[in-house]
From TrEMBL:
Upper lineage: Bacteria, Bacillati, Actinomycetota, Actinomycetes, Pseudonocardiales
Catalysed reaction equations from the record: allantoate + H2O = (S)-ureidoglycolate + urea
Pathway: Nitrogen metabolism; (S)-allantoin degradation; (S)-ureidoglycolate from allantoate (aminidohydrolase route): step 1/1
A Pfam family of this chain: Allantoicase
InterPro entries to which the protein is assigned, alphabetical: Allantoicase, Allantoicase_dom, Galactose-bd-like_sf
Keywords carried by this UniProt record: Hydrolase, Purine metabolism
Family recorded in the similarity comment: Belongs to the allantoicase family.
Protein origin, superkingdom: Bacteria
EC number: 3.5.3.4
Organism for this UniProt entry: Actinomycetospora termitidis
Name of the protein: Probable allantoicase
Presence of keyword Hydrolase: yes
Positions of the Allantoicase domain: 20-167, 186-316
Coiled-coil region(s): none
The encoding gene: alc
Length: 347
């Protein structure tokens, strides 16, 4: 189902700090720090809070411009990918929002010091923005980008920048035994029974959860049945072991869990890898998966309900998936990036 203006809903925010994004540089941030732009949580506002430089805002805010020009900030995406839509959220910026914005994107190899010298491609033309509004802009560009540059005309404040899209991992780093479920590798939530408090997509974020709110939490189940989540793996591969982390879930961990996989490439049905097993609260469990078949989807069942903070499926890409990942990456690289890594072209 489409979202507003043909956007695809439920795609991850590639810029989010939760995925490792960073606001690398901005030309000005006198009133409010650029880093706020990519905080994962919703922006907040306290009408009574003033600091040394003026009203405190949970966002990025530049000073009133007294000369021609405009303000800008560059964001390194936590995970590179193909962009679907950008949200420029001006929440609480009412008399000081930018009336117009534009967004460009770049595909950068390595870690250059000066990102202003990258090749920047327009992905959202200069467009009107409203104050105190989550402004949504569709992106129609099939290339894979690593960075975005938000420009605001002429100046003002933006609470959050969300860059929703599909992760396309660099296949050179998908070697060896990796977490086949990780969002940063391209793993994604396909469906779930209940995300009342927080989405199961959180289970695939990098690092450990810092509190219960960073995991998946469903509501207390009052009827029959059990809660579940289905994920597409980053790429097809052979699972070695699974990590089921209930850390922070003390009074609301599941009683039992099971894990199944299937290979949609071969059209196979679900195979149970981990039969219903009892789990403990606040514990990182690891279960070996000997003789697991190749798979590209995973289903987690929790009984009867309950939350987890992380789910990892460690395994190795199979040769077909590794080849497909390299061809996809190469096909989506912008021309200037392809020229830099010509020796990496798939054979
Ligand atoms: N009340 C304000 O927001 N004023 C100014 N901004 C801050 N942060 O104080 C301004 O001029 O945009």
């Amino acid at each position: 189902m489409d979202g507003p203006d043909g956007t695809t809903p439920d795609l991850p925010d590639l810029a989010s700090r939760a995925l490792g994004g960073s606001v690398v540089v901005a030309n000005d941030e006198l009133f409010a720090e650029r880093e706020n732009l990519i905080r994962p949580e919703a922006p907040r506002f306290d009408s009574t809070e003033f600091g040394h430089k003026g009203k405190v805002y949970d966002g990025w805010e530049t000073r009133r411009r007294r000369e021609p020009g405009h303000d800008w900030a560059i964001v390194r995406l936590g995970a590179a990918g193909v962009l679907d839509h950008v949200v420029v959220d001006t929440a609480f910026f009412k008399g000081n929002y930018p009336p117009e914005i534009s967004v460009e994107a770049a595909s950068v190899e390595g870690y250059p010091a000066d990102l202003t010298r990258a090749t920047w491609y327009p992905v959202v033309e200069r467009s009107a923005a409203q104050g105190d509004t989550a402004n949504v802009y569709k992106v129609d560009d099939d290339r894979r980008f690593t960075h975005v540059r938000l420009s605001i005309f002429p100046d003002g404040g933006v609470a959050r920048l969300r860059v929703h899209g599909t992760v396309v991992a660099d296949p050179r780093f998908l070697a060896g035994t990796i977490d086949l479920l990780a969002a940063e590798h391209g793993g994604r939530l396909v469906e779930c029974s209940d995300a009342f408090y927080a989405s199961p997509a959180n289970l695939t974020l990098p690092g450990l959860a810092r509190h219960m709110g960073e995991g998946w939490e469903n509501a207390r189940r009052r009827g029959g049945g059990n809660d579940y989540a289905v994920f597409a793996l980053a790429a097809g591969g052979v699972p070695r072991h699974v990590e089921v982390d209930t850390t922070w879930f003390v009074g609301n961990a599941p009683g039992w869990v099971s894990v199944s996989t299937r290979d949609s490439r071969a059209g196979t049905d679900w195979t149970t890898l981990l039969d219903r097993v009892e789990v403990r609260p606040d514990t990182r469990h690891r279960f070996l998966l000997p003789d697991a078949p190749a798979a590209d989807h995973l289903r987690l069942d929790v009984f009867p309900d309950g939350g987890l903070s992380r789910l990892r499926l460690w395994g190795d890409l199979d040769p077909d998936a590794a080849r497909a990942a390299r061809e996809r990456w190469w096909g989506l690289l912008p021309e200037d990036h392809r020229a830099l890594v010509a020796d990496q072209a798939p054979v």
